[in-house]
Description:
Layout: H1 2-10, H2 12-56, H3 67-76, E1 80-87, E2 90-99, H4 100-112, E3 116-123, E4 130-138
Helix pairs in contact: 1-2
Amino acid sequence: MIDRLTEFINSKSGYLSLFWTFSLLAVFFMYDNYQKKSNQIYNEYEKLKEIKFLTNNIQKRTIESSEQSIRNFLAEMGLNVEGINVNNDTFEITMNNVNIKKLVEIIYKLEENGYIIKNIKAVDNTGSNRMKVVLSFGSS
């Protein structure tokens, strides 16, 4: 059996069949590698298109970085503002009787307008979901 296999490999047709077998395997692996790279490049292209879309559709800030505009924003939300302190583009707001749902909405709208929340302190000593809140945020 081994003699017949050795004889076949040493013959001209044996060399040709081995050559074509290895050639087909090489072509298959090259095509497979091409498909993987092609898919990878396409996925990166789609991510870049999404980033470009998001950067082109950035919403402009509707709340200005002034004490009066922040006060107006909180008044529109129906909140009882005790005080606002401004230090180097950082606002510290003290509010009374804030509902937890309103607090979440305030944070969402501030972040949507490009502000960064730096510190939140919310205390509810009564258990009635009405909190005293100290919220500090800034534009950078």
